[in-house]
Structures are given as structure tokens and as C-alpha cells.
Amino acid sequence: MNAGATVVSPSHFTDNGEAIYHYCGQLRVVNDTATGGHYGVDASGCAAGDTLSVDGSSFSGLDSYGVHLLYGGRHAVTNSLFTDDNTGAYGAGAPDSIVGNQVIRPQSVGLSHYWSGPSAGISRISNNVVTCDRYGASYAGGVGLAHASSTVKDTLIADGNSVSNCNQGVYLSGAWLALADLFAWCPDLAALGLTARVRRAIDAALVTCAPTYDLAVPGALIGCAGPRVIEQTIRQKRPRGVQRSEFLLEHGFRGGVVDRRELKNYISNALDFFLA
User: Fold this and answer.
1) Distance of alpha carbon 3 from alpha carbon 23, whole angstroms
2) What does R_g of the chain's alpha carbons equal in angstroms?
3) Can you say whether the dihedral through the CA atoms of 183, 185, 186, 188 is positive or negative?
4) Which SS3 state, helix, strand or coil, does residue 22 take?
5) Strand positions, DSSP E, 1-105
6) How far is the CA of 276 from the CAs of 26, 158, 257, 270, 272, in angstroms?
């Protein structure tokens, strides 16, 4: 598609390499359906004014990405359904807003954001439902947000999501401020036949990637697996409460433990402090 083009009318695509390909300019995909093939939407922006958006669409059986958005001014993926895709939606090179989607049985990652671009921005993955296949794609992740550079003050926010049966519920890395809501962490990981690499990753998931500022609610159980599953996997007894938010705060792995009722004021004060 050429610069300035916009997709607005409902269409159905089956078994295409790229159902919708876009390079430069505005793109708006609404109520489209893509089944089979490699990419549902593969789009790149060229300028700060290029907004790439997908709304109310359905993607199933894509062996690469349901939605793949790169660069431009801003990305939005909203109210869409992803079923049996390798990756549901992925955005990079510009701030993302990935809100209100449903992802069923992703093979790799449900929803993912990587790098908001050369300037600071706010990227949000919120109010989505991701359900992995515990016995099929054993290592599928639910939600991922990451930033490639510690020199840009990015804000990555994951809140209001529901993630179940995934190897990782949420992964946050390299952000200036990262806020993670409570997720339904993958239960019963012992049934997956974990490799040594994955067993190490379970413990590594508790380590914060500086310069990240993570918050948790009081009493939250944090990690990709519960204490019982980890102890059975590594065959070692772990300290009592090691995965609770208060323990992680005490040992420097969380920036704060904040009641939900105080979260708005806490974030406001944190932003004032860091932007001063």
C-alpha cells in the first residue's frame, strides 16, 4: 500500500503471505479477518504522524504474526481476536496501545511491545485476555513489554490483563517505569516437562532488569510459578515468602508495594519526581 492509504472496509483474507501490507502513511484496519498464512497485518510507518491502528478484527492460524507494527508515530491494536497464531500482536519502534483484545492459544507470545522509538513515550498493554494452551505450546508467554535502551525514559504499563496457563504471565524489562498488575500466573508448570533452561528462567523471572521501577500490591505472589512448583523443579527449599511483594521490596527487587487505592497518587508523585 502507498503512503496515506487507509483500510476501512471489512475484508476477509485466507492463506496469504501478508494479508495486509502497508509502508508509510496512515493505516486503519477495521473489522477485517485473516485466516492462515504468515502475517495478518504487516505495517511500517515512516514519520511521526503515521498512526497504525487495528480495531475489531480477527486473526487465526498465522504462523508469524497476527498484527506486526513497526515505527511511525503511534500504534493501536484494540478489540481484536487472535486465535492459534504464533504471536498475536507485536509493536516496535513507536509507542503502543494494545487494549481490549483476546488471545487464545498463542504459540510464542500473546501480546508484545518492544522499544518505543528514539524518544520517550508511554506504551500500554491493558485489559486484554490471554489464554495459553498449557499442554500444547509449553513455553508460550502471555504479555511482554521491553525497551532496548536505558538512555530513553520509556513508560511501559501492563494493567487489567488476565493471563492464564502461560509459561510467563507478564515480562517487563528495561523500562523507566513499569507497572504490572496481578496476573493469573501459569499453574502446575510441573506438567510441562520443563527443560533446565526454562527451570533457570523461572528463578530469573524474579530479577528486575535495571533501570526498571516495578510496583506490586501488598501480599502479591510474583513469579512465573508458585513456590511449590519451583521447589519441586529445582529440588531445593526456598526462603519463606520469597515470592511475596514485601520480600522482594526488602531485597531490592521491587520499587514499591502500594495498595490499589493509593496507586494513582503514588504514580503521580513518582512521575513528578522523575520528571523534575
Assistant:
1) 7
2) 19
3) negative
4) strand
5) 12-23, 27-30, 33-44, 51-55, 58-60, 65-70, 74-78, 81-83, 87-92, 96-99, 102-104
6) 34, 24, 23, 10, 6
Q: What percent of the chain has pLDDT over 70?
A: 68
What grid cell was written down for 102?
483476546
199: enclosing H helix or E strand = helix 196-204
Cell of 208: 528486575
Place of cell 515505527: 71
Q: Which helix (H) or strand (E) holds 266?
A: helix 263-275
User: CA-CA distance, 46 to 24, in Å (whole number)?
Assistant: 5
* Residue 29: strand pairing partners: 54
CA-to-CA distance for 115 and 91, rounded, in angstroms? 8
Q: How confident is the model at residue 19 (pLDDT cuts 50, 70, 90)?
A: very high
3-state helix, strand, coil in the chain (%, to 5): 15, 40, 45
**pTM check: above 0.85:** no
Cα(77)–Cα(99) distance, rounded to whole angstroms? 6
Contact call for residues 168 and 224 (beta carbons, < 8 A):
yes
Tell me if 217 sits within 8 A of 182, measured CB to CB.
Answer: yes
**Sign of the C-alpha dihedral, residues 91, 133, 188, 199?**
negative
β-pair type (168-173, 141-146): parallel
Q: How far apart are CA 244 and CA 116, in angstroms?
A: 30
What residues pair up with 60 in beta bridges, in sequence order? Answer: 35, 83
DSSP-derived pairing of the beta strands 214-216 and 162-164: unpaired
Neighbours of 21 (CB within 10 A): 15
Residue-wise pLDDT tens digits, 154-210: 677 777 788 888 777 776 655 433 433 322 333 333 333 434 444 344 444 433 333
